[in-house]
Design goal:
The complex is a heterodimer of chains A (145) and B (113). With 145 residues, chain A is of the alpha+beta class. Chain A has helices at residues 15-29, 33-57, 102-116; strands at 4-8, 63-70, 73-79, 119-125, 128-136. Chain A has a single domain (2-136), classed as 2-Layer Sandwich (Heat Shock Protein 90), CATH 3.30.565. Chain A is built from 3 helices and 5 strands. Chain A has a 5-stranded antiparallel sheet, covered by helices on one side. In chain A, a hairpin with a 2-residue loop joins strand 2 and strand 3. In chain A, helix 1 runs antiparallel to helix 2 and helix 2 runs antiparallel to helix 3 (102-116). The N and C termini of chain A lie far apart (35 Å). Chain B is 38% helix and 33% strand. The model of chain B has no long low-confidence stretch (mean pLDDT 96). With 113 residues, chain B is of the alpha/beta class. Chain B has one domain: STAS domain (Transcription Regulator spoIIAA, 2-Layer Sandwich), CATH 3.30.750. Chain B is globular, with a radius of gyration of 13 Å. In chain B, strands 1-2-3-4-5 form a 5-stranded mixed sheet. The longest helix of chain B has 15 residues, at 57-71. The chains are: A alpha+beta (145), B alpha/beta (113). The A-B interface holds A 12-13, 15-16, 19, 37, 40-41, 44-45, 48, 51-52, 100-101, 104-105, 108-109, 111-112, 115-116 and B 21, 23-25, 54, 56-58, 60-61, 65, 85, 89, 92-93. Chain B: This is Anti-sigma factor antagonist. Chain B: Residues 3-112 form the STAS domain. Chain B: Positive regulator of sigma-B activity. Non-phosphorylated RsbV binds to RsbW, preventing its association with sigma-B. When phosphorylated, releases RsbW, which is then free to complex with and inactivate sigma-B. Chain B: Belongs to the anti-sigma-factor antagonist family.
Amino acid sequence: MATVELRFSALPEHVRTARLVAAAVARRAGVDEAVLDEVRLAVGEACTRAVGLHQIGGISAPVKVLLIEEEKQFSIEVGDEAPHAVAGGGASGGGPGDADGEADEDEMGLAVISGLVDDVEVSAGEHGGLIKMTWPTTPPPTILV
Amino acid sequence: MDLSLSTETMGDRTIVRVGGEIDVYTAPKLREQLVELVNDGSFHLVVDMEGVDFLDSTGLGVLVGGLKRVRAHEGSLRLVCNQERILKIFRITGLTKVFPIHTSVEEAVAATD
């Protein structure tokens, strides 16, 4: 199981909470202080994107965030339940019929994530999408004998 | 931390001082402010971001939207920002080429190009 698991209604006001929780857990896990701003921004972008997808798709399910502390690394998974067109599916209706640039903002969010995080995987299927981001951690200082 | 907004006029420029966090929740307030200013005839805007603690792509989208609006009236939108963590977001999205970014309000107000 994830170290910390967070589920929140797909509402913009909860994205800040996800950012704060993610940064706090990342700090505790040993992610470098200098990188915490990037963690905060990247998780915010991923959650913003998920909230947007749920709202556009009228999905009442919560957005799910897993914060996973592992040996030498810390991962964040942000999952949405929006059905994504499978590769090659092209014009399969139900896509975001945005008016003025919502798709652009979605793309910009992904651009920010990929610009910030070296280790990022984006996957999507008909049951939802997942953004997994991983950062290295430094173990707490040990006393040298 | 919510978003704080205040405006001030300096000659033909309108300074919009922004404080707090600009994200998916608060960005609509900034959008409303910029739209209102343009609707009221302020086409030369300086957005002072020195008090901003956090900015994400939603905020960038609002600033780009503001730029589009003022340009439609041959206006300008300049930013004031010295914070590396905020500047980094403009850099990785390539928006440093789109927005004139100044180190002080005075410099932005004096800029004419």
